[in-house]
Amino acid sequence: MEDISNGSNNEMITITKGEPTRVHPNEPVEKKGLYYLSNLDQNIAATIPTVYFFKSEGKGNEEAVEMVKNGLSKILVYYYPLAGKLMISSEGKLIVDCNGDDGAVFVEAEANCGVEEMADLTKVDHVVLGQLVYHIPDARNLLEIPLLMVQVTKFKCGGFAIGMSMNHCMLDGIAAMEFVNGWGEVTRALPLNLTPFLDRTILKPRNPPLIEFPHHEFDEIEDISIKTSLRQHEQIIHKSFTFDAPKLAKLKETAMEDRVLSKCTTFETLSGFIWKARCQALNLLPQQKTKLLFAINGRQKFIPPLPKGYAGNGIVITNSIVEAGELVEKPLSFAVGLIQGAIELVDDRYMRSAIDYFEVTRARPSLAATVLLTTWSRLPLYTVDFGWGEPICSGPVALPENPVLILFPHHKDHKSINLVLGLPVSAMKMFEELIMEI
C-alpha cells in the first residue's frame, strides 16, 4: 500500500497494489532463443513509464483488469520479444532471451479516489503519478527490470488507469503506440489492424563499417558552469507547462520576424525556445558549450524505407552544439536555424553511418551539458481503446533523467503541446517567467 499526497489539493491518495504476476503469450511462439536488437536500439535503453486514464462509460471497471490482462496475453503472441529477458550478448550488446519463462509483469491496484482527481498530467505531482506504474524494488540495473510491466489501477468512480513501463530499446514511440493500439484491438476481440515486423537484422551494420559523418551526439562536453553554480546543491523539481495555439503562433512569429528564416515548423520553433530558455534559466557561463539532442523518425528516410509496422527503434539521434552565450544573446531564429540544420543532416547515409559508428566505438550519446528533447506531440496517444472508449488523458509519468524533456499533446486541447522538465528550484522560477513573457 502506498499513501501519497496529491500536490493539487494535499489530500492523501492511497493506492493499494496486489502481488505482481507474469503474463505470457496465450499461444505457442515458434521463434524462441536470442532476439537481435539493432544498434539504434542500443543507444536508448531506458525505462519509459506512461499512463492511460479511462472513464467508466457506464460499464464500471470490474471487468477491466481481466480484459486488459487477457488482451495482453493475446498481443504478446505478436510481440513475443516483450515477454523476454534483456541480456548482454557475447559481443557486449543488448539482446533479448526469448526463452518463454519470463513474461510481462502484471499488477492489479486500487485507488481511494476518482479518476478525475489524477487524470491531468500537467497538474498532478509526478510522485503521485509514479504510483500508477509498477516498479521493481531494489533493481540494480536495467537487466533486472522486465522489458514490459503493466499496472491496472481501479478508481472508486468506476474508471481505471493503465500504467505501462517499457524499455525504450524494444520500441520507439511510433512502434509503442502501434503495440498499445493493437493491444486494445485484441482486447475488444477485433483482428489486429497492423501486424508487427519483428526482424531488426535489416538494420545490421555494414561490413566493413563505414563512418561517413562526424557524430557529435556522442561528444562528451565539460560542464564548466556547474562548478561555479550554487544551483548544483538545489533540489531538482519537475513541472509541466502548456503551450496553447496562441503561444505557439507567437513563437513562430518571433522566430520569423528578422526574416533570417524562410519557414519553420512548430517543433523547430518550440524546441529552439525551450533550449534557449533553459540555458537562460540555468544562467550558464557564456563560454559553456551546450548540446541539444533530439530524435528524427528515420522510417521513410532509409533506402529502402523500413517496412510498415517495424517493431523496433526506427529513430536516429541528431544534434546541435553551440556556446550558451551565443544561443542566449542571438534571436530565436538562430536557435531554430541550428535545429533545422541538424534535421537536414539526417538521411539514409547519415543514419547508416550512426549505426556503423556504434559498431566501431560502442559509444553512447553523452548527456553532460546536454538537453535531450523527446517529442510525443504527434503520437496517437488518444486513439487507444480497450472497450471503454478513448482515454480521457494519457502521456508520460516521469522523466528518465534530468536532462530529458518531453513534449506531449494536451489531453483536452490537442492543438496545445505540454512540456515536462526538471530544473533546480531557482532555475525553474526563471524558466516560468520566460514562458510568461511569450
UniProtKB/TrEMBL annotation:
Q: Which terms are listed as keywords in the entry?
A: Acyltransferase, Transferase
Q: Reply yes or no: does the keyword Acyltransferase apply.
A: yes
Q: Which GO terms describe its molecular function?
A: acyltransferase activity, transferring groups other than amino-acyl groups
Q: Which residues form the signal peptide?
A: none
Q: Does the keyword rRNA-binding apply?
A: no
Enumerate the InterPro entries for this protein: CAT-like_dom_sf, Plant_Fungal_Acyltransferase
Do you know which Pfam families this protein is assigned to? Transferase (PF02458)
Q: Which family does it belong to?
A: Belongs to the plant acyltransferase family.
Q: What is this protein called?
A: Omega-hydroxypalmitate O-feruloyl transferase
Q: What is the lineage of its organism?
A: Eukaryota, Viridiplantae, Streptophyta, Embryophyta, Tracheophyta
